[in-house]
């Protein structure tokens, strides 16, 4: 079982149905639609609860994703570009989310700026194939990583606040 | 200050010297050796194969020269893969295919093989250069890409199935020396589809345990048949600190695992000794659990199931040999993975706790599916919206 906070996070993200990866020509389009449906719902839920923290889009065949995520620290909003590929073994294996601009700034990253996930993430993902999708990888993988690492990077002066129009999120 | 003409003259002079030097060494860089057509067992100090060919004279290997007919693909040329490739190169393997998308970094210098001056070069390119100098008889094919993406994966499959010495068939063995679950699963997928035997290897993120596992699609458990196995390290979880870093690494553990991997590869290719199905290594205890694993009939990978059927059909057709001693198979009742395991650990290993399903000292990285989600949880509804509409909607949020 997972803790109450994780369950609450999960309740914001609709589960997926189709077990198909990008090499599965017939079923991948259905899976991709489910990914978008789930993500749209998740982002809307985040907005409603005043916790809007990322945007994503993909290439046409849904194999490459990119977007932005935000982290608020001491009332300042820090923005980062994110990207990842959908691996051929998806959804058996989760996508490896990367923040290339932070590559080399923290030991909690693998080459290319791929974030280092907790021991709990992979088992949790493996147990929930194919119900978990990109939204779940964001919520259970990237979310906790940002919460721990960004304040640390800010305190070390490795991440600096960039002056921007306050409405960065809606742009 | 030298004039341009003086410099030109000096260059010409040096070029003549270089040509002379090249003549001496048969076209290779200074110090490198010429190619050798036939492996000789003559014991002279100029024969790089004499000690290997002695294996034949001593009756360990029937026909060592066959090593030159074999092609091995090494996926991941890091701490384990680079040493693996070097060992195979020194053993005189026919051809090596190297796959990696990483560059050499100074942070890699706690490991074997790569040198500081190679920092910034792609790992496969740097490795090929060093290995060619060590043994010019080996053929090399290198691919600098990530095998887990859709575009590269097809090419990867193609090279595994057509990359042998003559270019008309599959490689003899694939060795997985990658450092992550995603890449292992990609290799597993490819090998199940291609009916390709392979050996998986790994070192734990805290650098004090490792393993090798021979996977013959349909015959032994594939990498997707069960959760990954963990070798007991006898570390108190409470004292294990993971804060601050992703992974540690030791040249010793990586060297040991590469050694076990290549030893098993040589035995597999040259047909001597017994080839281990699973061999674990716990550095803190000097403990080596070993066992065999049968495939899971309910494996997630559909090609694994297909290969299992084929294997069983083939087995049924094989003339039965009378078994002298009937070994009892251990099929534990609480084995939720549907895998039967045969404990091959030696008596010495029994001092650790007896595990019911796995060889002593081994456990799964995580247990069977739990109830993280509930039936009542929201699931995406059927939609009439097209993908384009959904993409547009997402963009407009
Ligand atoms: Zn399997």
From TrEMBL, chain A:
Entry GO terms, CC: cytoplasm
Domain of life, per lineage: Eukaryota
InterPro entries linked to this entry: UBQ-conjugating_enzyme/RWD (IPR016135), Ufc1 (IPR014806)
Gene3D superfamilies: Ubiquitin Conjugating Enzyme
Alphabetic keyword roster: Ubl conjugation pathway
Pfam families in the cross-refs: UFC1
Molecular-function GO term, any one: UFM1 conjugating enzyme activity
Gene Ontology BP, a term: protein K69-linked ufmylation
Active site: 116
Transmembrane segments: none
Keyword Cytoplasm among UniProt keywords: no
Stated role: E2-like enzyme which forms an intermediate with UFM1 via a thioester linkage.
Family: Belongs to the ubiquitin-conjugating enzyme family. UFC1 subfamily.
Protein's UniProt name: Ubiquitin-fold modifier-conjugating enzyme 1
Originating organism: Patiria miniata
UniProtKB/TrEMBL annotation, chain B:
Segments forming a coiled coil: none
InterPro entries: D-isomer_DH_CS1 (IPR029752), ThiF/MoeB/HesA (IPR045886), ThiF_NAD_FAD-bd (IPR000594), Ubiquitin-activating_enz (IPR035985)
Pfam families recorded: ThiF
Domain of life: Eukaryota
Record-stated family: Belongs to the ubiquitin-activating E1 family. UBA5 subfamily.
GO molecular function terms noted in the UniProt entry: ATP binding; metal ion binding; UFM1 activating enzyme activity
Positions of the UniProt region annotated as Disordered: 348-379
Name assigned to this protein: Ubiquitin-like modifier-activating enzyme 5
Keyword line: ATP-binding, Metal-binding, Nucleotide-binding, Ubl conjugation pathway, Zinc
Domain THIF-type NAD/FAD binding fold: 49-299
Gene3D superfamilies: NAD(P)-binding Rossmann-like Domain
Biased composition (Basic and acidic residues): 367-377
Annotated GO biological process: protein ufmylation
GO cellular component terms, A-Z: cytosol
